[in-house]
From TrEMBL:
A family per Pfam: TPP_enzyme_M
The protein's required cofactors: thiamine diphosphate
Annotated organism of origin: Micromonospora andamanensis
Domain (Thiamine pyrophosphate enzyme central) ranges: 193-317
InterPro entries from the UniProt entry: DHS-like_NAD/FAD-binding_dom, THDP-binding, Thiamin_PyroP_enz_cen_dom, Thiamin_PyroP_enz_TPP-bd_dom, TPP_enz, TPP_enzyme_TPP-bd
Domain Thiamine pyrophosphate enzyme TPP-binding: 378-525
Protein name: Acetolactate synthase
Matching CDD domains: TPP_BZL_OCoD_HPCL, TPP_PYR_POX_like
């Protein structure tokens, strides 16, 4: 039997949101969305508020990424929504099921110049899977349910609804939506079988697994497929940690050796974009396994490209009935390269330099981070080093900005991570440049008792831009920041705490204090401005 609900637009929206597993709202106040607050307040639905709307959307995205369920941001009409657009775009690139609910000027006098009157849809449509204005309270539950179904259907992504003032403030009634009912899309079995034959028949296959493997809850199936076919696995994005680092098929450092010698490269649940040399692996054949046909690459002709439910595809690979070529020598060759690279990294992570190099920070961090710690990267070179030196031990613990590469995710992601995991370590690795985008939201974290640790790699420059610009032009402009700035004092002024570290030997104790603090704590590490992350392409 279907249940009917009645109430004002905010109450109708919240009832539908609950049915879809939404458990909190991130927001920054605005009268246009008061009914959403009223509904939440009356029913003890948690509201977390921020100091810039970008943080609300990033927080919602972190919840979506970590919990694999919809994250919600409520933004007021006009500037509230426009401030959220970088967050929506990041969610779009990351396939994160984020719902942004926007306020909207009243429809009945549209065009007369109401406060904050603007049509959001043309702005958000290109970066959402669905964007719609809902004109009556009665229609809100249907619209919320349809939007969330779209957001959760692979290939996932953000959705947007806005409610004209009179729609959200007026009373209506509707049927309570049943909640998500998604039927997995089964990939073409012939295409899956041909992918399996290619991998099993390859002499030197490699798997690269990305975020959709985690989001699609296919981590166990990935491991089973890799083990059944004995294929070395590299990961990126939310796929990191899918195989624990000690697993015999888990690799991270030997990527260059692997990709330049592989004869079949299997890319699963991540696009063939700049992070993967646009899918060009020389002579190697490419198998691209995606969660929806829309994700097949237009610029590459893979040898096989099964599209559909990743669990189903990976299970079929694991169950491949045909012969397999022995890959043991290949795995051993990569293990030798991996071990050599690890030994080099270990030296760098222990280096006693003055000023401190970023590698040493990660060396010290590795000693204090728990296996289930959530680490968040927001910055340039400092975060590239994080990617290199930190090895997530579990999937769903590593938050990078993804291929959109938007600076400013830091405090929003931290808020979403802390709300998700109240008892785990949450550690933000932040460039000093990146700090400028969201550090004010430490105030939100302090006020709402959401402690996190922030480690700033303070080189006094926009390092990832300064070094390439110098290499290209022999000079640089617009690339300097105030050297040795006391970001720890900013956090102190906002009600948290922190300290500045200039000597490598002081790092360990400072990090201990940070994780014990129980309030947002910033460790401001003065790092070597001459240190540039070595990259093959100098453009970012
Ligand atoms: C919103 C946004 N603005 C600008 C950039 C371009 N950008 C990428 S990395 C970077 C430098 C980051 O500097 P910092 O956070 O200090 O890290 P560092 O490279 O110095 O370690 C910039 C400006 C971007 N990716 N996103
Ligand atoms: Mg910097």
């Amino acid at each position: 039997m279907t249940e009917r609900i009645e109430g004002h637009g905010g109450e109708l929206a919240l009832a539908a949101l609950r049915a879809y597993g939404v458990r909190e709202m991130f927001t920054l106040s605005g009268g246009h969305v008061f009914p959403l607050y009223d509904a939440a307040h009356k029913t003890d639905f948690p509201i977390y508020d921020v100091r810039h709307e970008q943080s609300a959307v990033f927080a919602a995205e972190a919840v979506a990424k970590l919990q694999r369920r919809p994250g919600l941001a409520a933004l007021t009409a006009g500037p509230g929504v426009t401030n959220g657009i970088s967050g929506l775009t990041s969610a779009f690139f990351n396939a994160s099921p984020v719902l942004v609910l926007g306020g909207r000027a009243p429809q009945f006098r549209w065009g007369s110049g109401s406060l904050q009157e603007m049509d959001h849809l043309p702005l958000v449509a290109p970066v959402t899977k669905h964007a719609e204005t809902v004109f009556s309270a009665d229609d809100i539950p249907r619209a919320v349910a349809a939007a969330l179904t779209t957001a959760l259907t692979p290939h996932r992504g953000p959705v947007f609804l806005d409610f004209p003032l009179e729609a959200i403030f007026s009373v209506g009634d509707a049927e309570l939506p049943a909640g998500p009912q998604l039927s997995p899309l089964e990939a073409d079995p012939d295409e899956v079988a041909s992918a399996a034959r290619l991998i099993a028949g390859a002499a030197r296959p490699v798997i690269i697994a990305g975020s959709d493997v985690w989001t699609g809850d296919a981590v166990d199936e990935l491991r089973a497929a890799a083990e059944a076919l004995t294929v070395p696995v590299f990961t990126n994005g939310m796929g990191r940690g899918a195989l624990p680092p000690e697993h015999p098929l888990a690799f991270a450092k030997a990527r260059r050796v692997a990709l330049s010698n592989a004869d079949v490269v299997v890319v699963i649940g991540t696009p063939l974009d700049f992070r993967l040399s646009f899918g060009d692996f020389g002579e190697a054949q490419v198998v691209h396994i995606v969660d929806a046909p829309s994700q097949r690459a237009g610029h590459v002709q893979p040898a096989a490209a099964p599209a559909g439910d990743l669990r189903g595809i990976l299970t079929a690979l694991a169950d491949h009935p045909g012969d397999r070529v022995d890959h043991d020598d290949w795995v051993a060759q990569l293990r030798t390269a991996e071990d050599a690279a690890k030994a080099r990294d270990a030296e760098e992570m222990a280096a006693e330099t003055d000023p401190i190099r970023p590698a040493r920070i990660y060396g010290e961090l590795r000693k204090v981070l728990a296996r289930d710690a959530v680490t968040i990267g927001d910055g340039g070179d400092f975060v590239s080093y994080a990617g290199r030196y930190l090895e997530p031990a579990q999937p769903g613990t590593w938050l990078d900005p993804g291929p959109y590469g938007c600076l400013g995710t830091g405090m929003g992601y931290a808020m979403g991570a802390r709300v998700t995991h109240p008892d785990r370590q949450v550690c933000v690795l932040m460039g000093d440049g990146a700090a400028g985008f969201s550090l004010m939201d430490v105030e939100s974290l302090v006020r709402q008792k959401l402690p996190v640790v922030i480690v700033v790699g303070n080189n006094g420059i926009w390092g990832l831009e300064k070094h390439p610009m110098r290499a290209m032009y022999g000079y640089d402009v617009a690339a300097d920041l105030q050297p040795e700035l006391r970001y720890d004092r900013v956090v102190g002024a906002l009600g948290g705490a922190g300290e500045t570290v200039a000597k490598a030997t002081e790092l360990g104790p400072a990090l201990q204090r940070a994780f014990d603090a129980g309030v947002p704590y910033l460790v401001n590490v003065l790092t070597d401005p001459a240190d540039a992350y070595p990259r093959s392409s100098n453009l970012a």
